[in-house]
Design goal:
The protein has 135 residues and is α+β, with helices and mostly antiparallel strands. The protein has four helices and four strands, in the order ααβαβββα. It has helices at 3-29, 34-38, 54-65, 108-134, and strands at 41-48, 70-76, 79-85, 103-104.
Length: 135
């Protein structure tokens, strides 16, 4: 194993630990009572790899409300919880967006690709600058 693959493994371990931390936090922050689950409500958390704030947050809330979803809480700029009456399912066939979407924005794979592309571009620029200075 070379230094680069070791670094990638360490980065993957850190990312996995961070995801576990977020999942545990959501479990702690979203305790549902028996009444919550038996009185005709369903819940979801919409996640994004980039911040959901300002106009983007307003647009998300409006889009979700078209399918009967109501804002419950904003955990942070990347995770927002909604609820809706189970009766709203009857209108799902007319929805212009997936009523059960739980991710918006770039997928995790695309986000990683963008970050890696930026890092690679920076490395190429540094290499070129070093070559010019030492060349």
């Amino acid at each position: 194993m070379n230094v680069y693959s070791g670094g990638a493994a360490a980065a993957a371990a850190v990312a996995a630990a961070y995801k576990r931390k977020l999942d545990e936090e959501e479990e702690r922050l979203t305790p549902y009572t028996k009444e919550d689950l038996t009185q005709g409500w369903e819940y979801k958390i919409v996640r994004s790899n980039t911040a959901i704030s300002g106009e983007r947050f307003s647009r998300l809330c409006e889009e979700e409300s078209q399918n009967g979803w109501e804002l419950v809480e904003k955990f942070d700029n990347n995770r927002i919880r909604f609820k809706r009456s189970i009766a709203s399912r009857a209108n799902d066939h007319m929805a212009s967006i997936d009523p059960y979407r739980t991710r918006i924005g770039l997928s995790e794979g695309a986000f990683v690709g963008v970050v890696l592309g930026v890092v690679l571009a920076i490395c190429v620029i540094i290499f070129m600058v070093m070559a010019v200075l030492h060349g």
